[in-house]
Design a protein that fits this description.
six-stranded mixed β-sheet; alpha+beta; about 35% helix; single chain; two-stranded antiparallel ribbon
């Protein structure tokens, strides 16, 4: 059965968190792991174990249980890819943090509160905050099951909720099916991640299509991946730079199916496929020459990969 490690990241370490997640690494100073058995806990972690990063919480110098109703401004769920190892290769700008683990991000969940994560998880994160961000390891799948229950959008109708509840109730059974848990967890987190991205990239009720520039109700807009996830490493799934907004009035399908691409300067370009029929060519031509909203140096490689996948 996989374990779960809770790691608190303080408010002033936002840049370090982003850097670590984008590089698939997290690390600690050796001196931090030398206290209170933290090194031994870190050494118990194995590939497949879960990591929950909590960021920007309240004052942790409170009594046990004092975070049960607290809110964390950012929660990231990841899965371990390598056990603890020592490496000096520079990743972070402020320090080396040589005691490292490898990870892949499952979902960047944004703001979550105590009821979403559960009291056991919140207490583990509070303890990590008081121990300089070292991992606090909890055995088994019970807490992760609670997380799925807490973040399911419609628990009364959700198959994920039922499966997660079964897991939470049977965490101590002798022969757990870790593969089933992973599938349930990642499915629920993926849907939550999509919801978070929509809130981040759209307005309260309306938004703007990045391709045609029309302002439309959110019901007519989709947050889509620029490069399909099946063409990328697993850790790219939570990368907001691989997302853009496309309208359901034509732009989404024109881009998804490669009738239009985006060049190295961020300009929409009608591709050869757009000549399949005059009407398709007209629709693609209507948005050709426009600068895609939100185009950046970080999103450019994803648009380039999309061009490569749709080259004829």
């Amino acid at each position: 059965m996989p374990n779960t490690a809770y790691i608190y990241v303080p408010t002033l370490a936002s840049e370090q968190l982003d850097t670590g997640l984008s590089n698939g690494r997290w690390g600690w100073r050796a001196s931090a792991l030398e206290r209170g058995g933290a090194l031994q806990d870190a050494q118990t972690l194995e590939p497949g174990d879960y990591l929950v990063f909590g960021h920007r919480g309240p004052n942790s110098r409170v009594k046990p249980g004092g975070w049960s109703d607290a809110t964390l401004q950012r929660v990231v769920v990841a899965q371990l890819t390598t056990a603890l190892f020592t490496e000096e290769t520079p990743i972070w700008h402020d320090d080396t943090y040589p005691e490292r683990i490898g990870l892949r991000v499952i979902a960047d969940l944004g703001e979550l509160s105590g009821p979403d994560l559960g009291s056991r998880a919140m207490e583990s994160l509070r303890l990590s905050a008081n121990k300089r961000g070292v991992p606090v390891v909890t055995p088994g799948a019970e807490v992760m099951g609670h997380l799925v229950v807490g973040i399911s959008a419609e628990p009364a109708d959700s198959a994920d909720w039922s499966a997660a509840a079964d897991w939470a109730a049977s965490a101590d059974r002798a022969e757990p099916d870790d593969g089933a848990l992973s599938q349930v967890l990642q499915g629920a987190l993926s849907r939550r991640n999509t919801s978070v991205l929509r809130k981040r990239m759209l307005g309260a009720s309306t938004g703007t299509c990045a391709f045609c520039g029309r302002t439309l109700p959110n019901s007519l807009l989709s947050v889509i991946h620029i490069t399909p996830l099946h063409s990328l490493p697993a850790e790219a799934g939570a990368d907001v730079d691989n997302c853009t907004v496309a309208c359901n009035l034509g732009c989404e399908q024109l881009f998804r199916r490669g009738y239009v691409t985006v060049d190295a300067e961020g300009i929409v370009t009608a591709g050869p496929r757009s000549r399949e029929t005059p009407d398709v060519h007209q629709a693609a031509g209507a948005i050709s020459g426009r600068l895609v909203a939100g185009f950046t140096a970080r999103s450019a490689p994803f648009f380039a990969r999309h061009r490569d996948l749709n080259a004829i």
